[in-house]
Design brief:
The complex is a heterodimer.
Chain A (H helix, E strand, L loop, with lengths): L7 H6 L9 E2 H9 L1 H9 L7 H13 L30 E2 L8 H11 L10 H19 L6 E11 L4 E11 L2 E8 L4 E2 L5 E2 L2 H16 L6 E6 L4 E6 L2 H20 L18 H4 L1 H7 L20 E5 L5 E5 L2 E6 L2 E7 L3 E7 L3 E2 L1 H9 L4 E4 L5 E5 L7 H11 L2 H26 L5 H15 L4 H17 L40 H24 L17 H7 L2 H15 L8 E4 L2 E4 L1 H16 L1 E3 L6 E3 H17 L12
Parallel strand pairs in A: 1-4, 5-8, 10-14, 11-15, 14-16
Antiparallel strand pairs in A: 2-9, 3-4, 4-5, 6-7, 8-9, 11-12, 12-13, 16-17, 18-19, 20-21
Helix pairs in contact in A: 2-3, 2-7, 2-8, 3-8, 7-8, 13-14, 13-15, 13-18, 14-15, 16-17, 16-18, 16-20, 18-19
Chain B lengths: L2 E8 L3 H12 L2 E5 L2 E6 L1 H14 L6 E9 L23 E2 L1
Antiparallel strand pairs in B: 1-3, 1-4, 2-3
Classes of the chains: A alpha/beta, B alpha+beta.
The structure holds iron/sulfur cluster.
């Protein structure tokens, strides 16, 4: 005798088996699509939205409102089904959608028979259309009283102990003792060359799992239906032995991948990758290019979007109050709204100094994975609050293990310092009025020497010497006569207006405008590297080159080394050389200089303009923004940590 | 890639009208009475349409979504104003 099933949840948790251990059918579907996708999502816990996932979510939203009731199985239904061998499961008969017809009474009836007490009288159009077919069937059956009626239950969750699988059925249609699962899909069905409709393997396997779970719960079930939302077509999926074998081996593979801790390799030039929501996390072609594997791709397809479509916000007006209204951030000064910014448009919130952000705004930001960066009024970075969570704990474990391996640390550190010096040299070559041959030659030499340094200490030494050479020539990249200089050493400084001269790097506090801007640029870049590290799942505070010190984002500082010249220094040069920031934007305060609010505003715009500008990746030959580049480079470091690639390719411009 | 959409609506009921207005404020700039200009990615558009579909009465109200092309290659004369000025902001970030 089969126990009556009262509802999804009682079914799911009534067993001895740890419910955590049951694999959701959806996961198996993803494994059949791509084993690496399964690993990234369900072992590493990474997720990214795409058009397909969002649309899928919208399609499922109404379906998921069901209560999950399904009448108990009839004892006679058990295992009585024998699949017919000659049925080809891949060829499916399309059924025309009949005109919509509202038949509320049908659902009331269904509710009493089938435990579906969810009928609130406001049926979704799609659902109507989907159920229409069966409603028509049952209309016919009403005339012939002896034929069984088709009844519906929505959003039914069932599990199978023997398979170790839990499945959520969007809709279950029961006719007599036969239950047919219906799965809602977005888009349109696959069409074969001869025009017949068919289903892809991941979807077939998902239906097979639902059928198996139904059988395990005592129902008779031998086929399922895919309902395509866009075209309103129903596609039947028969379940035969071949499909069952495929399904069972997929379940086994899922368990094995979960236990192995080894990420499956990317698919080879697959048409699936461009559609895959995780393509920016997986980096299939980039990984294959760098990994030591057979047949690396000839060219890396540009599968990642070149830019982040959302923009950072900087709040810079002292005493400002920022609240949330509907989906907007509302900035107020003295109770008056000065600006409204849509949450949908932003990817960061940054606060400089004395700014109040309401709890509601903070909650919304964190809930949307929008990090909040905190800076002092002068622009010293002092923290980021999350909402980013720990995305990939496995890579973090690997990071901690390898940070203890001094050989590994030295290896990464050498590459970082080498890259940084090379990039400094490139900046001098590109921007200096008369690049000094000796400096360029020396920088080249020290860059090479960094690669063979035998300790972190000697690397620090090399980095220091190179910095002295580079900053020694830095002034030659400033092309602005700031109007107060009379040339030579005899520049005149108006009382409160410092000139743009640069002699050496100084900080805390910076003593001239150029140093003030360099400090601010490094602060901003630290913040962005920290955010990149966190997005990828790394701990921003444990570095390989920079040593652990409380409060120091050592890994962010590691990551940013090669980008200091390319992003930060370059922004300072362009802000000055294009006169976006001028001497008027600074005030002398004792020995140091302070940037005005307006100056900071212009500088922030210059910085973000740089972050948003496109640069060609020398290894992959596609163009991405600097912001995207930071993320890609950080993901490649994570690949190096997981062992998938053998060398960390530090970014160098050509 | 973002595209520019002009979204206009004709809603018969005051409560739904308020809701549509509120919803669209989350997606774009209110240009004129019942007209919004939104710069949306494909994903944004999908979400925005789903939100509106939930609010509207499908038999009485209407929303029109007019595609004005990619935001990146927007021409300076895409929108021209007579009377009060119109300006399209395109900064790499917000500084307030
Ligand atoms: S991008 Fe391609 S290889 Fe990577 S997870 Fe997606 S489908 Fe698999």
């Amino acid at each position: 005798m089969i126990q009556p099933i009262e509802g999804a949840h009682s079914t799911t948790f009534s067993s001895d088996r740890d419910p955590e251990d049951l694999l959701p059918a959806r996961m198996i579907n993803e494994l059949v699509y791509c084993p690496r996708l399964f690993y990234l999502m369900h072992v590493e816990g990474q997720f990214a939205e795409s058009i397909d996932t969002i649309d899928g979510g919208i399609v499922h939203r109404r379906v998921d409102n069901g209560t999950g009731g399904l009448a108990p199985a009839e004892p006679c239904a058990t295992q009585s089904f024998i699949p017919s061998a000659d049925e080809d499961p891949a060829v499916i008969v399309p059924e025309a959608t009949k005109p919509k017809k509202r038949r509320k009474s049908k659902h009331v009836q269904a509710a009493t028979l089938f435990g579906d007490d969810d009928d609130d009288g406001s049926e979704a159009g799609e659902q109507e259309a989907c159920e229409q077919q069966s409603d028509q069937d049952s209309d016919a059956s009403e005339e012939a009283e002896d034929l069984p009626k088709t009844i519906h239950a929505r959003s039914v969750t069932l599990s199978s102990e023997s398979l170790g699988v839990i499945a959520k059925l969007d809709l279950a249609e029961a006719t007599g003792s036969v239950v047919t699962p219906v799965d809602y899909k977005r888009g349109r069905p696959k069409r074969m060359a001869d025009g017949t409709l068919a289903a892809w393997d991941p979807e077939r396997v998902q239906i097979a799992l639902q059928v198996l779970v139904l059988r395990d719960n005592g129902y008779q079930s031998d086929e399922g239906v895919l309902y395509f939302n866009e075209t309103r077509q129903r596609v039947r999926v028969g379940v035969d032995e071949e499909l069952l074998d495929l399904t069972r081996s997929a379940i086994a593979a899922a368990r094995q991948h979960r236990e192995s801790g080894q990420i499956p390799p990317p698919l080879v030039s697959s048409p699936k990758c461009p559609r895959c929501s995780l393509v920016g996390i997986c980096l299939p072609e980039e990984t294959r290019r760098l990994a030591n594997i057979q047949q690396p791709p000839a060219a890396v397809r540009p599968l990642i979007t070149a830019r982040d479509e959302r923009r950072p916000v900087y709040f810079n007006t002292q005493g400002m109050w920022i609240g949330k209204k509907d989906d907007l951030l509302q900035a107020k000064v003295e109770g008056k709204v000065v600006q409204e910014i849509r949450f949908n448009d932003i990817n960061q919130i940054n606060l400089f100094g004395n700014i109040q952000l309401s709890t509601q705004a903070i909650q919304t930001a964190l809930g949307r994975d929008v990090p909040i960066g905190y800076f002092t009024q002068k622009g010293y970075y002092y923290g980021v609050s999350g909402g980013l969570g720990v995305k990939n704990i496995l890579v973090r474990r690997q990071q901690f293990r390898l940070a203890d391996d001094s050989e590994f640390c030295l290896d990464i550190a050498r590459a970082l310092v080498h890259g940084k010096i090379r990039n400094q040299r490139t900046l001098l070559m590109r921007n200096h009025r008369e690049p000094d041959a000796t400096s360029l030659r020396d920088l080249k030499r020290y860059a090479a020497r960094a690669l063979t340094a035998d300790s972190l200490a000697s690397l620090l030494g090399i980095e220091g010497i190179a910095a002295r050479i580079y900053f020694g020539d830095f002034a030659g990249m400033l092309k602005v006569d700031c109007g107060v200089s009379t040339g030579g050493e005899g520049y005149v400084t108006a009382e409160k207006r410092p000139a743009f001269h640069f002699r050496s790097r100084n900080r805390r506090p910076p003593r001239d405008p150029v140093n003030a801007m360099l400090s601010l640029a490094y602060s901003l870049l630290t913040k962005d590297c920290l955010v990149a590290a966190t997005i990828v799942g790394l701990d921003p505070h444990l570095g390989f080159y920079h040593q652990v010190k409380p409060g120091k984002p050592a890994l962010a500082l590691d990551l940013m080394e090669p980008f200091r010249p390319l992003i930060a220094d370059s922004v300072v040069l362009s802000a000055i050389n294009t006169k976006m920031v001028t001497a008027d934007h600074f005030i002398c305060a004792g020995k140091s200089v302070v940037m005005s609010d307006a100056g900071r505003k212009h500088f922030l715009l210059a910085y973000e303009k740089r972050m948003d500008s496109l640069v060609t990746h020398p290894l992959f030959d596609y163009r991405v923004s600097y912001r995207r580049l930071l993320e890609i480079q950080t993901r490649l470091l994570a690949r190096r940590l997981s062992g998938e690639i053998e060398e960390y390719p530090v970014f160098q411009t050509r | 890639m973002r595209r520019i959409y002009l979204i206009t609506y004709d809603v018969c009921d005051a409560k739904r009208l308020r809701k549509i207005f509120k919803c669209l404020r989350g997606w774009g700039d209110h240009l004129q009475y019942s007209v919004f200009e939104c710069q949306l990615t494909d994903a944004d558009l999908l979400r925005c349409k789903a939100e509106m579909a939930d609010i509207l009465h499908h038999g009485e109200d209407q929303v029109l979504v007019i595609d004005l092309g990619p935001a990146a290659s927007r021409s300076a004369t895409l929108v021209q104003a007579i009377g009060k000025p119109y300006s399209a902001m395109a900064a790499p970030c917000f500084v307030v």
